[in-house]
Amino acid sequence: MALIEDLKWRHAVKAYNPSEKVSQENIEKIVEAARLAPTSSGLQPFRVLVIENQEIKNKLSEGALNPECMREASHIIIFAAWNRYTAERIDKVYDFTTEERGLPQGRFSAYTDKLKSIYLQEDAEVNFAHTARQSYIALGLALAQAAELRVDSTPVEGFNHAHIDQVLELEKLGLKSVSLMYVGVSDPSRDWIAPMKKVRISKEEFVIEYK
Ligand SMILES: Cc1cc2nc3c(=O)[nH]c(=O)nc-3n(C[C@H](O)[C@H](O)[C@H](O)COP(=O)(O)O)c2cc1C
Fold this sequence. Notes:
By secondary structure, this protein is an alpha+beta fold. It contains nine helices and four strands.
């Protein structure tokens, strides 16, 4: 039940206290939850960028739906996914996995050939839609980990993707921003949504059962 209680505790914070910082230890646990997320074929086709630097936060906030929130959060975790699949990227992951597991080289080559035959003939946009979806699982786990630590956070899609990609030169890394997670300490005087009831549709409406 602990996880359910954690999820009931959390809410998408609307304003942070700029003078409060989240500990490095807690940031590392949140990022670790993201790193441990399952991904399609285990490719982990995304990275997280952890921004604490105030100047960079200010720069990134241009064009955001709620720029103040971004500037005042203690940290911004950016989920950025591979802009496309490549043979090199797929091979690198599977060479590493093979080595880590002490398996003979080429153990997964039939499987990676299959992956390449599917992904490499798709447009980059189709690849990115897939890599981006993987990153949302990590965002969800990071939100849950923050809640377990009683660290306030906000999942965010309301930002200027092109601007963030350009400021952080993500193209050079073969990445494109997908979502953000603000992490910090809520400012109760301005976090207007905090006292409101958490609203979800009923279980009856949500679950479609076939017994
Ligand atoms: C992928 C995603 C993107 C979101 N983008 C924003 C956003 O840009 N700004 C914002 O204030 N909240 C954003 N939210 C928060 C949702 O509005 C919020 O999670 C939802 O209303 C449920 O409320 P709760 O998280 O407080 O339970 C986002 C949530 C998710 C999952």
